[in-house]
Amino acid sequence: MVGIRWVADGDAGLDDFAAVPCEPADPGAGELTVRVSAAGVNPADLKHVARISDPADFPAPIGYELAGVVTAVGPDTRAASGRVAVGDRVAAFRVHGAYATEMTIPAEQAFVLGRDVPDEQAAGLLLAGCTAAEMLTRSGARAGDTILVHGASGAVGAILLQLAAMADVAVVGTAGPDRQKAVEQFGGIPVVYGPGLAERVQRAAPAPVVAALDAAGTPEATQTSLHLVADRSRIITVVDRKAAAEHGFVALSGSDPASAAYRDKVRGELLRLLAAGELTVPIAHVFPLSDAVEALRLVTSGAAHGKVVLRP
């Protein structure tokens, strides 16, 4: 059956996005066809298009993560989680073209889901969750330590708070005045950003801050991190590579081979925590697939305040 998928026809950003008819190819060996139930929306979806330098790579499919139902299985095929069959619900990450009604994907990127895991949670977990897990691991934080998280009420920040709590790591989390309860909800110590931030963090922290993790990307976040953490290998950003290069701290990106390898390894554990009810994804907005441009515009504005997903 003919469905739709979103593509970028050029490098002019959202103005070049278009929904086009599509019919997925039959799966070959090591592939699955999945009817998409939900797709996660991430800033990386737009950044991916901006990095394309060869016009021959357009139109480019959009979207990295999804949840859905398997409609066909290629020969000699196993999912990342093991056996997979038609009718299984799966989550997949590091695919290309999740903004679609149906698509064929490498089975090695798919994990079979338990029946009680909601589609929206599964579709919204893996990019933000893998990012959060890598940031916490790279920080070197141990039980009893205190860390600072900038942008603690967003999707990455909220998952970071939960993972840190599981590791008995205290987190001071920055957020706007209307987002303080969201930080508290996931175990963080909320602090309002703005002038005097470093002093407020020091007053709120139960112990000296040993690492600073930036999911906000503001100059204030950078300056506060540099003020509080002397060891620049423990200042980590996922949004401001320019500042990291200028000041000599760490910038993480899923496109880096070491980061990609780490994120691939942690996917199964994150989905296990989700299925067990030990981890939750803060779903802020759900858009129909037809409104993908509006959904991505909201995410890139920084005003989503949680995870945004698409539903066909």
Task: Please name the CATH topology of the largest domain.
Answer: Quinone Oxidoreductase, Chain A, domain 1
Tally the structural domains.
Answer: 2
What is the CATH architecture term of the largest domain?
Alpha-Beta Complex
Helix content: 25-40%
Question: Any idea what the CATH superfamily of the largest domain is called?
Answer: Medium-chain alcohol dehydrogenases, catalytic domain
> What portion of the residues fall into strands of 2 or more residues?
25-35%
The arrangement of helices and strands along the chain is EEEHEEEEEHEHEHEHEHEHEHEHE
Q: Profile the largest sheet.
A: 7 strands, mixed
| C-alpha termini separation | 14 Å
Whole-angstrom Rg: 19 Å
Query: How would you sum up the global shape?
Result: globular
Helix segment tally: 9
Report the strand count.
16
Coarse structural class: alpha/beta
Q: Note the quaternary state here.
A: single chain
Uncertain regions: pLDDT < 50 for 5+ in a row? none
Average pLDDT confidence is: 96
**CATH level 1 class label of the largest domain:** Alpha Beta
